[in-house]
Design a protein that fits this description.
It is built from 17 helices and 25 strands. The chain is of the alpha+beta class. The N and C termini lie far apart (about 90 Å).
C-alpha cells in the first residue's frame, strides 16, 4: 500500500479501524455487497457527525486501536483518549514495546496465532506500560485486518473501575467449573493490581461440604494466577498446594471471630516480616520487586460465615491501595463467592456421577472373551455426565453378557436411572433370563420410573432410553442379541470386512402401551477372532454425515484392528478417529474380541428320555474325563452330578435330553438341557422326603449351579472345581 493511501492516525477513529477488521467476520448479503463503497462513505460521515456532537469529555473515552504489520510493528494507531495518556505509541516500533517484559512471550504467541489462522483472539485482560512506570489494564482483542489490508488490528478497551466491576460480575459465574470460575475472578482482579491469585480451600476442589474450620487448620490450593507468564522457581502456581505454614498464616488472618475483612500488607519489608522465612517469600511473592498485597477472603454469608478461600492482589509498593479500591475489591469478591460455592456443589455432583460411571465400566473379559471400553463425557462438568453406560460380565453358566445403554439426559437424574437399569440387567441376565426377557423388564422399569405418582421421577423422564444386550456362547461361538431402540452393533469376522448387525428397529424403552412391540432376538455366528463393537450415538453422530455413513466409518475403523493389537489401545484409537471435536453427547465404545473354547475342550451328547439315560451319560462322560486326565475325586463328583441332573430331566421332561461337558480354565461345567418348563428348586430335604434329594447332592458337590431358559425348555448347569 502506498504511503499516500495509508490513513494517518487522526484520520481513522478506533471504531473505523476495529469495524474494518471485524468486517471479514460478519457475512454480507447481496444487498450490502451491491451498495459498495458509497454506503460505507455515508456511514463514515454519519459516524463523524455523531462523534463531533458528543459533549466534551465523552469523545474517545475507553476505546483505542492499533494496526500491526506481519512483523508485529505498529503501522497506525488511535490512542488519543485521555485514558491512554502515557502509553507511548510510535509508528514503526514493535507492538511488544507497549507490554511489560514478562507478558511479551505470551502476547507474541497470540499475535502470531491470529496471523497464521485468521481466528480472532477476543477480550483478554492485558496490561500496557505507561511512561511514568505505571501500568494500564485493558481488554485486548486481536483481529486479522480486513482485506485489502494485511496484518492485524488490536483493539484496546480501558474501562472505568465501576464499569469494570459490572463487566466482571457478568463474566464470572458463566461456568460451573471451579477452575474456570477462579480464573475469571483472577482476570477481573487484575484491573486493580499487577498480579492476582486465587487460593481455595481444598474441600472446595473435592466438592465436600465446607464448614467453619478450626483456627489454623485451613488447607489451601492455588486455583488461578494471572497474568500468564513464566514464574520464579519455587513460586506456587495453579494446582499446587500452599505450604502448610503459609496456609496457617492466612487462616489466622481470615478466620476470625468478627466478619472476615480484607487484609493489606503495604510493602516488601512488612511481607517478609509476616511470612518469616525466605522459603515462604519465594512461594508467595511474585518476583523480587518491592510489592504490597491485599488479601480478600471469599466468604459465604451465614451464621457463622464460611470461608471458601482467599483472593490476593499484588501491586508495587509505590501504589498503595486506597479505601475505594478495597471496597471495590471486597464487593467483587463477595459477589463471586456464591459462584464458587455453586461450582463446588457441581464438582461434588460431578464426582458422584463419575464414581458411578467407573463402577459400571467393564473390568476384565475372562478366558473366552477379551473386552475393552472407552467412555468420554460430553463436557467436563457433571451436566455432561451420566447418560451412557456399558458393561460386560461373565454369566454363571460360562457365557458372557455385553450391555450398552443410552439413558435420556445428563446429570444425577440420568446417572441414577443408568445405575438402576444396569444393575437390574445384570441381575436378570445372571438369573438365566434371555436378552429379550431382560429388555421387557427394563421397559417396565422405565415406565414405572416415569410415573410421577410414584414419586420416583422427581422431574426427570427416562422415556426413550435405549439399550442393547448381547450374550456370547463360547461353546457354539454364537451371539444372541436384542435391542431396544439402540443403534446396531458392528461385527468384524476374522476373515472378512465388518458391517452392522441386521436388527429390527424398536421404539426404545418406556414407549406407550399401544406402541409397544415384542423384542426380537437376533442370533449370529461369531467365530474366534471376531470383533463386536457396541457403542452409543455420540461416537458416530456428525452433522455432515448420515447415521448410516457414521456406522460405516465405525465399521471401517474397527476392521483395521489386528488380532495382535492390544484391545484397549485399539479402542482408544477408534474413538480418537471418530469422535467429533465438539461433542454434544457422551461417547461410549465397547469392543469385544471373541476367543471361545477349543473344540477339544467341549463335548455334547443327545439322549432319549429313557430310564437308562443316566447310565449312558455316566459311561460317555467317564470316557471323556479319562481322555482329559481328570483327577479321580473330580471325576467321581462330575459323574454323580451328571447322573442326578439327567435323572431329574428324565423324570420331568418328555423330549430329548442334551448333555454338554465343558473344560474351563478353573474347573468343569456340566449342562443338562430338556424340554421341561419346571424350575428345579432346592427344598429343605426332610428326613423321610425322597423328592429333591438329587439337587441337594448337586448343591453339595458344586461351586455354583443354576437354570438357563431356552426357546425349547431349560438348561440346568453346574460348575465343579478341579
Amino acid at each position: 500500500m502506498d504511503s499516500d493511501s495509508t490513513p494517518s492516525p487522526s484520520s481513522a477513529s478506533p471504531f473505523d479501524m476495529v469495524s474494518s477488521a471485524l468486517g471479514q467476520y460478519i457475512p454480507r448479503g447481496p444487498a450490502a455487497a451491491a451498495a459498495g463503497s458509497a454506503d460505507a462513505q455515508v456511514d463514515s460521515a454519519a459516524r463523524q457527525r455523531v462523534h463531533a456532537n458528543l459533549p466534551p469529555g465523552r469523545q474517545e473515552q475507553i476505546l483505542g486501536a492499533v494496526n500491526l504489520d506481519g512483523d508485529l510493528r505498529i503501522t497506525r494507531c488511535n490512542l488519543d483518549a485521555p485514558v491512554f495518556a502515557g502509553v507511548e505509541v510510535v509508528a514503526g516500533s514493535p507492538f511488544v514495546g507497549l507490554l511489560p517484559p514478562g507478558d511479551v512471550p505470551t502476547v507474541i504467541r497470540r499475535l502470531r496465532q491470529v496471523l497464521e489462522t485468521g481466528e480472532p483472539h477476543v477480550a483478554r485482560v492485558q496490561r500496557l506500560r505507561r511512561s511514568d512506570g505505571s501500568e494500564l489494564v485493558v481488554s485486548m482483542s486481536i483481529l486479522a485486518a480486513a482485506a485489502p489490508q494485511k496484518g492485524l488490528t488490536v483493539s484496546l478497551i480501558a474501562m472505568a473501575r465501576r464499569l469494570h466491576l459490572y463487566a466482571a460480575e457478568t463474566a464470572i459465574g458463566t461456568s460451573l467449573d471451579i477452575g474456570e470460575t477462579a480464573q475469571s475472578l483472577a482476570e477481573s482482579l487484575l484491573a486493580w493490581g499487577d498480579v492476582a491469585a486465587i487460593d481455595l480451600d481444598f474441600a472446595v476442589w473435592t466438592g465436600e461440604t465446607v464448614t467453619e474450620q478450626p483456627q489454623g487448620r485451613i488447607r489451601l490450593r492455588r486455583a488461578a494466577l494471572v497474568p500468564d507468564r513464566a514464574w520464579p522457581d519455587g513460586y506456587v502456581t495453579p494446582g499446587d498446594d500452599l505450604p502448610s505454614d503459609a496456609s496457617r498464616l492466612l487462616a489466622q488472618a481470615i478466620l476470625r471471630d468478627d466478619a472476615a475483612q480484607a487484609i493489606v500488607i503495604p510493602d516488601r519489608e512488612a511481607i517478609e516480616r509476616v511470612l518469616g522465612s525466605a522459603r515462604l517469600v519465594r512461594a508467595l511473592v511474585p518476583g523480587d520487586l518491592a510489592a504490597g498485597v491485599a488479601c480478600i477472603p471469599l466468604v459465604l454469608d451465614g451464621a457463622p460465615p464460611v470461608v471458601l478461600g482467599v483472593a490476593e492482589v499484588w501491586r508495587r509498593a509505590d501504589r498503595p491501595f486506597d479505601d475505594s479500591e478495597l471496597l471495590d475489591l471486597q464487593e467483587l469478591v463477595a459477589r463471586t463467592s456464591h459462584h464458587v460455592d455453586l461450582a463446588r456443589q457441581h464438582q461434588r455432583e460431578h464426582t458422584q456421577v463419575l464414581a458411578l460411571q467407573r463402577r459400571l465400566l467393564p473390568r476384565t473379559g475372562g478366558d473366552t472373551i477379551e473386552t475393552a471400553s472407552v467412555y468420554q463425557p460430553a463436557t467436563p462438568d457433571s451436566a455432561g455426565v451420566g447418560g451412557d453406560w456399558v458393561n460386560s460380565f461373565p454369566l454363571p453358566d460360562g457365557r458372557t453378557a455385553l450391555v450398552v445403554g443410552d439413558v435420556v439426559g445428563h446429570g444425577l437424574g440420568a446417572a441414577a436411572t443408568m445405575g438402576q437399569l444396569s444393575m437390574e440387567a445384570r441381575a436378570l441376565l445372571s438369573a438365566g433370563l434371555a436378552p429379550e426377557e431382560v429388555l421387557e423388564h427394563l421397559d417396565e422399569t422405565v415406565t414405572l420410573l416415569d410415573d410421577t405418582e410414584s414419586g420416583l421421577a422427581a422431574g426427570y423422564s427416562a422415556l426413550g432410553s435405549t439399550c442393547c444386550i448381547a450374550v456370547y456362547d463360547p461353546v457354539s461361538h454364537r451371539v444372541a442379541l436384542s435391542s431396544a431402540g439402540h443403534l446396531p452393533p458392528v461385527l468384524v469376522p476374522p476373515d472378512g470386512p465388518g458391517g452392522p448387525v441386521a436388527i429390527r428397529p424398536h421404539p426404545g424403552l418406556g414407549a406407550e402401551f399401544a406402541l409397544r412391540e415384542p423384542f426380537d432376538v437376533h442370533a449370529f455366528a461369531a467365530p474366534p477372532g471376531s470383533l463386536l463393537a457396541l457403542y452409543t450415538d455420540g461416537l458416530i453422530e456428525d452433522p455432515a454425515l448420515s447415521i448410516d455413513e457414521g456406522i460405516g466409518r465405525l465399521a471401517d475403523a474397527v476392521s483395521t484392528v489386528h488380532p495382535w493389537d492390544a484391545l484397549q489401545q485399539a479402542a482408544r484409537r477408534v474413538v480418537s478417529l471418530l469422535a467429533p471435536e465438539r461433542r454434544r453427547d457422551d461417547v461410549t465404545l465397547l469392543l469385544a474380541r471373541m476367543i471361545g473354547y477349543r473344540k477339544g475342550d467341549t463335548a455334547t451328547w443327545r439322549l432319549p428320555p429313557r430310564g437308562d439315560a443316566a447310565a449312558r451319560a455316566r459311561t460317555m462322560v467317564s470316557a471323556l474325563l479319562g481322555q482329559w486326565r481328570t483327577r479321580d475325586d473330580t471325576r467321581d463328583s462330575v459323574l454323580l452330578v451328571v447322573s442326578e441332573l439327567v435323572t431329574n430331566a428324565v423324570r420331568f421332561a418328555d423330549g430329548p435330553i442334551t448333555v454338554r461337558l465343558i473344560r474351563t480354565g478353573h474347573g468343569l461345567l456340566c449342562e443338562v438341557g430338556d424340554s421341561g418348563n419346571g424350575r428345579p428348586r432346592l427344598g429343605r430335604n426332610e428326613l423321610l422326603d425322597d423328592g429333591g434329594r438329587g439337587l441337594h447332592v448337586v448343591h453339595g458337590l458344586t461351586s455354583r449351579w443354576g437354570v438357563r431358559w431356552t426357546d425349547t425348555g431349560k438348561v440346568v448347569w453346574a460348575s465343579v472345581a478341579m
